[in-house]
Amino acid sequence: MPWYTAVLLRGEEVDGQPGPARRGDVLYKLVEAPDAESAYARALEIGAATTESYTDSDGASGTFRFLGLAELVELLGPPGDGAEVYSRFVSTPPEPMLRDKEDLAVFAAEKSSSELPDPMRELRETLPYVPVAGGAKAVGSNHFPAVCGHSFPWKSEFQLSRTGLRVSPLPVGL
């Protein structure tokens, strides 16, 4: 039976309200299903079960809720050692995404000075300034407006397909 990678998006609500500068996260989940339609339905079920609630140090309650799928990709083979579970094309130099060994999540957890075994989630005291959507670009910005995840200017020779690049889905640069 084929395997798929489902890329799930969750958005944050604080005290039951989505904030104007809402944070979110991206989850990569493996799905085994007989076909794409079944994989899609199963990915939605998995996503619905990912709701996570927390209380920050100020007593505000928050929840990360499933918003939908960002991607659903069939794996080239069954999962196993070295199997590719997701790739994406990077349109900027990839070197800034590189991390030293001690900065990789698996090793950074070992050097944590916290006495608590699990990561902690804390809200910022103030929200960062975010210009109004669709406003003018900030001076020196290298970002372009985007529609449905595709930024412009769009090069006509690009098509929506696998790139063949082997890039880890790092949170840096997402």
Number of helices: 2
The fraction of residues in strands falls at 25-35%
Low-confidence stretches: 154-166
Distance between the termini: 31 Å
Rg over alpha carbons: 19 Å
Helical content stands at: under 10%
N to C succession of SSEs? EEEHEEHEE
Shape: globular
Strand segment count: 7
Structural class: mainly beta
The chain-level mean pLDDT equals 74
Query: How many strands, what sense, and barrel or not for the largest sheet?
Result: 5 strands, antiparallel
Structural features, described:
- The chain contains two helices and seven strands; from the N terminus they run E-E-E-H-E-E-H-E-E.
- A hairpin with a 2-residue loop joins strand 1 (3-14) and strand 2 (17-18).
- It has helices at residues 36-48, 105-108; strands at residues 3-14, 17-18, 24-32, 52-55, 61-74, 146-147, 150-151.
- Strands 1, 2, 3, 4 and 5 form a five-stranded antiparallel sheet that branches. A two-stranded antiparallel sheet has the order 6-7.
- 5% of the residues are buried.
- With 174 residues, it is mostly beta strands.
- The chain is globular and about 45 Å long.
Question: In terms of topology, how is this protein built?
Answer:
Elements (H helix, E strand, L loop, with lengths): L2 E12 L2 E2 L5 E9 L3 H13 L3 E4 L5 E14 L30 H4 L37 E2 L2 E2 L23
Keywords for this structure?
174 residues; mainly beta; five-stranded antiparallel beta sheet; two-stranded antiparallel sheet; 2 helices; globular
